[in-house]
Structures are given as structure tokens and as C-alpha cells.
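writing this on my phone so excuse typos. first protein, seq and then structure
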Amino acid sequence: MHTRRRPEANEILLGDNLELMRGFADGSFQMMYADPPFNTGKAQTRRTLSTEFAEDGDRVGYQGRRYRTRLLARSSYKDSFDDYLTFLAPRFEEARRLLAREGTLYVHIDYREAHYCKLLLDELFGRECFLNEIVWAYDYGARTRRRWPAKHDTILMYVKDPAGYHFDAQAVDREPYMAPGLVTAEKAEKGKLPTDVWWHTIVPTNGHEKTGYPTQKPVGIVKRMVQASSSEGDWCLDFFAGSGTLGAAARELGRRYVLIDSNPEAVEIMRRRLGDRPPAPRRPPAARTAAPAARSHE
């Protein structure tokens, strides 16, 4: 068995994230962000998970297996979604092992899969380690006339130790009050701390941030996670790295990163995006005070 290592330099790795994660030592990362695929076999297709294996099924899932849909009420959570969750479970287990004691994992997931992933994460981390459900709200794309248009993603936030995690609200960029006339002029000028609902545009098609990767997330939302849950010099990990947005946010904020993806196109995009900049400083993380399990903000 090979000796597990700690990261020493910013890395962009191509390969199976499960195998690559197993090569790192326990507690190597302070903050993690994961934006996993949605079990469809198509990069931009987001459909509800199918539940019954059938060679003539109407849906194609992980590794090309076909499924026939059926009502959730006919089976348990584990029976219905075993294939997809079996893919995710060992990766989330490794994520927990790799988190530092004060560390935080953010899982960015489609609203149709969020509740299944939360049940899985509750089982792996413990319900007491669930900290937040963050809603990223945006306004773009087609609008159905048959139901309320779905214009949000879900980000599940779990900590390694609910009694001793790092959360620095003061490091997060403030945002304008929605009703500035209801607060003092001083407060309106200062802005407010974000809540668990984040209004943020998608990556503009003609913006400088755009890489061409189909599922790219905006730096602004990932930057907010990095600011709150890590300090300068800390290590951050994204094991479904895609276009490398976590790496871009980490570099900007003076953190260090490891990015993993199994798609050669994604790795090439990340290397073009990040490879021509100097590495983040390697000074030790600043001393921090553990956050209590619950806290209120202005």
C-alpha cells in the first residue's frame, strides 16, 4: 500500500476522483466544493433519477445502464436510487476523511436530486453535521407555463465537527439591502451579510470569466464559500472540478487548491485558465476561532 501524502503544490489532476482522493492523507483539506454529475450520461441534461433497472427502459444512467421510471412510493430510498448513490457514497466518504477537523464540505446539486443526496450525507456525516441548505437563485433560460419555473440550485453544507468548525462571516463580501430605506443610512452603506439564499447571475456568455465549459459555475458564489470556510494559505479541494472555478476563487483569495476531474477536456480548460499564474502563497494558515454550532448575524 502506498503512503498517503499531503498536498504540497497547487495541482490539477486527471483521473478517477475516488482513486486520486485515496492517495491523500487524512485531514488534508480545510474546505471542499463538489458539483457532481446528475447520472444522465449527458453533461447538460438534468433529469430526475430513474428507479428501476430495465434493458428496455426509457432512461439511460450511470455507465450506460437503462432504467424504467416508477413511483417513489413503491420502494425505499436506497432501493430506488442505489446505483447513483453507490457512485457518490464512497466519494463523499473519502471527502469526510480528507476534511480537516474544522473543515467544511459544500455539495452543489440539482434541486431534483438534493433531497436524496442530503439523506446520503446525513448518513455519512451525521445529521448533526448538516449546517445549511443554500439556495442559489438566478433568472435565465426557458420559462414553462405549466408550473413555477425552476430557477435555483441547491448547495448542501456539512462540517466535520459541529462543535468546532471554521466559519468567518466577516470575511464574506457584503451585499445591498433589498429595502435600504428600512435601515439606517450607515447600515445601508455598509450592506448586509448574505443569508442562505444567494441571488447571483450565471456566467455571462460573453463575459471574461467564460471558459466554454458547459456546466461552469460563477466565481462569485464559490468565492463566498471559500471566504467563509477557509483562511489564507489553507488547502481547498474540488473532486468534480469541471472548469476549475474553485481554483480560480482560491487563487484570488490566497488559498491553495487541488482540482480533480476525469474529463480530459475539463483538465485542459483548467490548465489554460489557471496554469499561467503564480501559485498562492504557502504560509501557514492564520489562527482561527472555532464557530459555535449555531450563530446569528445582523
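second protein below, same order as before
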Amino acid sequence: MKVTRLPTFPAALVGLAAMLMLASAAAAQQAGSPPALPPGSAVSPTPSPPPVTADVSGFRSARFGMTQEQVREAIKADFNVDEKDVKHGANDQEKTKYLAVQVSNLVPDSGLSVVTYIFGYSTQKLIQVNVVWGKLAGQSPQPGELVTTGRLLQKYFLDQGFVRDTLIVNRTTNTGSVVLFNGYDDRKRSVLLVLDTMAVPVNAPATPPPSAPAPPPAKGKADAKAPPKAEPKKPPEMQLVASALRLSYIENALTPDVFHIQRGKF
């Protein structure tokens, strides 16, 4: 199967960017250096801006630890939707509850997505937020649109100061999905961005025209030839294309607040 390659910057553009930076530096030197300070003068170095540190505390106005009513108010404030647009439900296996809302163009030109807010089994407080695009959101965008949205989000998260030792970028799973980004902040809260794929034929075969029925054998001729047997069809060549994009903000990925049967109960 062929795997769709994600786009990269052409080498020519990278070389052009380097030349522009060198030209900019040369222009700054030609503009003249600042006058020399008298001997013994103290020079105060320009302080560097503080490094960006990731803080995964929720999604937009919704914060981990909020109740359902608080999250409802956050949803209405963030997306300007009515109460009737906020759906609710429960996960029977994990015994968690959720609120969900459909949003358009969270990332410019990304189409419709579904944002789901999950509340823990024991605390009934917000523990996770999932955002999905594509098939998981009931949509059928072009695979390239999902890839573009995923790349934009990946670049954004790479600049947010996640703990470097925890980062996973562009790792393919055994199911064919691609982990575009996974990282943790200092408090072990995480962001997970996954591009899901599905197998489709490289070139879907055209529908063959209906064949005319074979003429009946001539009467009295025992040696009438039987119609030729159809050759077995070869399976079409398949390739992987993007089908959905998943983004999760997770308060505790290692021990989430979901129902599980305690050891020794059975």
C-alpha cells in the first residue's frame, strides 16, 4: 500500500530564506554601529524574553475541574451558540458523561468539527476535551485538507514549550494512524494530535457495461462450445489517505478518572 506523504518545504525556499537572513544581517552592519562607550562604562545587556512553557489547563474558556454547568457557559461564550446546540450523553463503559457541540472553522478553512467535553466518573468534573474533524465528525473533506489542518496544529504545538523529553512527532502506529504530536507539560497534562487514515483503491475500476447473454447451444450438436470462463479479478492496488483528525487535551493520561473494576472484586 502507498502512504500519502505529508508536504515539506522545497529546498529552494529554504536556501532563499537563508540568503534573505544573510542580506538582512549585512544591511544592519552597513547601517552603522552604535558609538563606542567611554572606558569604564557599564553595559546593561538586553534581557532575553522568558521561554514559553506549555500549560495544558483545558480548551479555550473550559478548564479542567469545571462542572457541567460551568462548561456549558464556557461553550456558549467561546462559540456563541445557543443552549439547544449543546448536546449531552454518556459513555456506558467508562461511566463518564459528556457535552458536545459542532463548530465551523476552528482552524481557518478546516470545515466542520465536533468538540466533546468529558467529565470524570468519580469527580463529575472536566477531565478531557476532544476535537475531531473529517469522518469522526460526520464529514467527508478532501484528505489534503485534513493534512493541512494537522500540519498547522502540529507547528503551533511545537512552539508551545512542551517538555522536550516527552515529545512524539510524526510517528506511525500499527493501525496506520500518524501521531503528529504528543507532548506533556510540567504537571503531566498532555496534548495528543492524531491523523487517522483509511485504505482506498489507487484507481477505482470503472463499472463494466452489462454483457449480452450467451446464445443457447444449437440443438442436436453435442459438441457445442461452452461460454468462456471469466478470468478472476485482481484485487485493486490500495493506498492510505487521511480520513479524520483527532486533537485531545487530557488532564491525566496515565490514570484517567473512568470506571474500572477494582482488582480482587472477581
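The CA atoms of residues 28 and 34 lie 11 Å apart. thats all i got for now
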